[in-house]
Design a protein that fits this description.
Elements: H1 7-20, H2 32-70, H3 76-85, H4 92-101, H5 103-113
Helix pairs in contact: 1-2, 2-4, 3-5, 4-5
């Protein structure tokens, strides 16, 4: 079998890795091994933080809903429980938007839940 040298492929993969690590600091942007490690970690953190971002948004929705519902004499948890018992299927994001932009509609939903 003939000998295969991987010069072209190695250069191509190195170039792509260093291109992905552009903007990183110190050896992470210039050395292949450090760049590869940095890219692997960056990908893992990006995935985890996309999940965290969704949770943070939901917590923000809950705060807005709680503040709006408190003015009507309910707590957040009692309001959500009442909505579920009455089978009113409106998610927290929509409730949050209603609380901020259309409070009169939210008041109607609260009246239905009571």
């Amino acid at each position: 079998m003939s000998r295969v040298k991987k010069g072209v492929n190695a250069l191509k993969s190195r170039r792509n890795i260093l291109k992905m690590a552009k903007g990183y600091r110190f050896s992470r942007s210039t050395k292949e091994r450090a760049a590869n490690e940095a890219i692997a970690h960056a990908g893992a953190y990006a995935l985890a933080h996309r999940r965290d971002k969704k949770g943070a948004a939901r917590r923000q929705f809950n705060l807005v809903i709680n503040a709006a519902v408190r003015t009507e004499g309910l707590s957040y948890s009692k309001f959500i429980g009442a909505i579920k018992k009455k089978n009113i299927e409106v998610d927290r994001k929509i409730l949050s938007i209603l609380a901020q932009e259309h409070p009169e509609i939210l008041k109607k939903i609260i009246a239905l839940a009571k």
